[in-house]
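Notes from hallway chat w/ T.B., transcribed later so I don't forget. T.B. wanted the structure written out for a chain they're using in a teaching module, and asked if we could keep both sequence and C-alpha cells in one place. Agreed to drop them here.
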Amino acid sequence: MDATVFATLAAALVPAAGPAQVSHGVLVFTLNPTELLPTVRRLRTDFGFDIFLDVTAVDWLGQTPRFEVVHHFYSTRHQVRVRLKTRVTEAEPVVDSLVALYGSAAFMERECHDMYGIRFDGNADLRPILLYEGFQGHPLRKDYPKQQEQPLVPYIN
C-alpha cells in the first residue's frame, strides 16, 4: 500500500467522502449515498482509478440503515485499491449507477440488484442476471426464507 497515495486521497476526498482508513492494505472511505457519484468521478478523472472491480452489498439486518453498498476500484497507475462504502435504508435501497463512468458496472449492478434488491439509479437494465424472471425476493438478504418455494417456470423446448 502506497502511503503517499493514501495521504493524497485522504486529503482530497475527506470530508466529502467521509472518514478514511486502511483495512487489509486497501484504502476505505465511508460516504453518504449522494457523494458516491462525485467521489467516483474524481477517483477516475483526477486520481487514475481506471478499473472498476466490483460492487456488492452487506445486509446488516436490525441496523439502520440496513444495507451497506460496497464498491471496489483499482488504479493501474498507482497500483492501489480503493473501497467505497455507503449505507442505504431498507425502505429506499437506492444508489447512483456507475454505468456512465464504467460500462462494466451494468452487469455487476444487475447482480447486486438480484441478490439484495439494491436499485441503481441510472442503470436502465436491472433485469435479473443470475435469477430467472419471476423469482420472488432477494436470496442474500438475511431475512430471506431459505425454505421458500419459488413459482414454477414452464420448460420450453
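Follow-up for T.B.: The domain at 3-121 is CATH 3.30.460.80 (Beta Polymerase; domain 2). Might be a good example for the class.
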